[in-house]
Amino acid sequence: MIVNDEELKVLVIAIKNGDEIAFAKFYDLHSRNLYSRIMRIIKDDEIVQEILQDVFLKIWTKRDTLDPEKPIKAYLFKIAENLVYKHFRKIAQDQKLIEQLIVNNIDYVLPVEDKIIESETKILINKAIASLPPQRKIVFTLCRLEEKSYKEVSELLGISVYTINDHLVKANKSIKQYFLANQHLALLVIIPKVFNHLK
């Protein structure tokens, strides 16, 4: 079921006025996609279902605050992001789970040259890159950020392709370790990026 912006606006107005049928239609429109996004991060159907219900419950209970002129989908995802982050704060004592989330989803915040990347993300990634040894930092920048081929970097720096690959493997490992050492910031960065990446 696909609706255009104008139809969605009408739907939001109806929800704001307490129309349960409109709310049910809104749920049908967005619940499956939102479920997939949350499941990508949490990977537990029962917990995901609970969060999903909480998201839509919050939409309904706060329907009088909805603004039809603002993008409801962005508001929906923001509520979901906050609830997911709240979930991880509750289980913060489970260190292995937090580490798994960061390691499994680190690629969503790289490369840093993404034009729409948030400033907080860019700052955290740049700090991680800055912590690399000089040559490794150069190789990572050329290959991952400037997207040069291994051959181009090999000719430019006068080192073998094998050495380049070794630098990249170690650089990725170092960046993951940096994120793990800064878990609070990493979660604030990764959760929104995963939501934005999955369409």
UniProtKB/TrEMBL annotation:
Residue intervals of the RNA polymerase sigma factor 70 region 4 type domain: 125-171
Spans traversing the lipid bilayer: none
Name this polypeptide is given: RNA polymerase sigma factor
Taxonomic placement: Bacteria, Pseudomonadati, Bacteroidota, Sphingobacteriia, Sphingobacteriales
Extent of the signal sequence: none
UniProt entry keywords in alphabetical sequence: DNA-binding, Sigma factor, Transcription, Transcription regulation
Organism the protein comes from: Mucilaginibacter rubeus
Gene3D superfamilies: 1.10.1740.10, Winged helix-like DNA-binding domain superfamily/Winged helix DNA-binding domain
GO biological process: DNA-templated transcription initiation
GO molecular-function term, one example from the UniProt record: sigma factor activity
Location of the RNA polymerase sigma-70 region domain: 27-90
Domain of life: Bacteria
Entry similarity comment: Belongs to the sigma-70 factor family. ECF subfamily.
